[in-house]
User: Fold SET domain-containing protein from Carpediemonas membranifera.
Amino acid sequence: MKENQADQNVRRSSRLKQNSIQSYFKQEKAIPVVDKKKALKPLKEASISVNDLIKPENVVIKIKHEKPEHPKTTKATKPASFRWLRVNKWTKEAMALCPKPIMGTDDGPDDDCEVRKACMVECTDKSCTAGPSCGNRGLQRQEYAKYEIRSAGGKGDGFYAKEDIKAGELIIEYVGEVLTKDAAQDRLKHNTSRHVYGMGIGDGIVIDSAERGNDARFINHSCDPNAETGKWEVRGRPRVAVTARRLILAGEEVTFNYHFETEGERVKCMCGSKKCRGYL
Ligand SMILES: [Zn+2]
Ligand SMILES: [Zn+2]
Assistant:
C-alpha cells in the first residue's frame, strides 16, 4: 500500500515538472503610483506571481478529504523536517538575481513615510527620520494580526483571524526560503512532502515555505478571498505581505487567491464561497 502511494507520488511529481511551469499566481493588486517629488517609480514587477510551485498533488490530497497532516496547532503539528523562520532565508544564487532597490537612500533621510508606503517600500533608519513613530515598518517589526492555525475541514488546516483586521492591514508576512526558480523546481523533483508551497515573486525568484517558513503557509485559497498578497521592498530586498482586502472579523478564515493555473489536470476548488469558480 505504502509502496503504491510512493509510486503515485513519483508519477505526480514528474507530471508536475511539466505542469508547474505554467502554474503561477498572477499579480493581484496594482501598485499605486504616487505623484510626488522624486518621481518614485512603482515597483516594476510588483506582481506576486504566486505559486509557480504549488504542487498539484497538495490540492488533490485536500480534495480527497484525507486526514490533514497538521490537525491542531502549528507548533505541535509541524512536520519533523520543518524549521520555522522569522525572516526569509536567501540562497546566494537567489541573491544574485535580486533586483536593485527601487528606492535608494542616497538622498538621506526624509519624512516621506507615506510616499514610500504607497510605493510598497518600507522605511529604514537610513531613509526615514521618524524612528519609533514611523508607521511604515510593519514587516520589519512583524506587526502581525492575531491569528490561530486550526482545521479548516476538508481543506486541511487553515489560518484564522483571532481579532478584527481592518482593510489594508498587514496580517502576516509570507516567509520561507528564497530560491531561484530552477532550484525550487529541482527541489520539487525530490521532495515527497505534500505541503509544498512556493510563491514566485518575479526575477526568477521563489519564496518556498516547504521546508522552512512561517504560518502564512497555512493560508488557503479562495475564489472570493478576504486577503491578498503584495510585494514589498524592505532594505533593498523583496518581501511578501499578506494584507486584508476588506474588514476581516475575528473567527474568519483568512484566504487569498492562488491564481493557480495549469495546463494539466484541472483542480477542483474547495473554497465554498458563493463566487467559487469550481476549479483553482
Ligand atoms: Zn518612515
Ligand atoms: Zn473556489
